[in-house]
Design goal:
2 copies of one chain form a homodimer. With 87 residues, chain A is an alpha+beta fold. In chain A, 26% of the residues lie in helices and 34% in strands. Strand 5 of chain A pairs antiparallel with strand 4 of chain B. Chains A, B: GO terms for molecular function: hydrolase activity; metal ion binding; RNA endonuclease activity.
Chain lengths: 87, 87
């Protein structure tokens, strides 16, 4: 499965969210992680993640595509790499 | 086709990018637009968009899924609606 995780999280929590997601996915843009992951690992990742956010303030979207080849990605401008985005 | 557009754009240009994308897609999170769009309209949208950014500083990713039913979306926490996000 291929997933894209986007988030809009309060300043106080955003580093915790990023550190957590970095264990499972690739940080590709300021508020975006992506990558291939199993159903089981994603479930574990999201369960832990939901304990790190404030559900009344923060917003996390998890887009899931069962077959990775069904999604393509175009880039306009820079392709950010994780080193650009210090934690 | 279903698309997700995520962006990391300089402060000076971000409003222009949002105003432009709002003509084609739905603003669903701080740096995320999504929606169904035809190949032709997307091409027009992106051509215009690339003239509004600084390609050496800004980053725009366009995730494309040919058949919308092949993608699902889970939400943890708040579902932002565009009124929360003033332009």
């Amino acid at each position: 499965m291929f997933v894209i995780v986007t988030y809009d999280v309060g300043e106080k929590r955003v580093n915790k969210v990023r550190k957590h997601l970095k264990k499972y996915l690739i940080w590709v843009q300021n508020s975006v992680f992506e990558g291939e992951i199993t159903e089981g690992k994603l479930e574990k990742c999201l369960m832990e993640l939901s304990r790190k956010i404030n559900k009344h303030e923060d917003s996390i979207y998890v887009y899931k595509i069962k077959i990775p080849s069904q999604i393509t990605k175009d880039i306009i401008g820079e392709e950010k790499n994780v080193d650009d985005m210090f934690l």
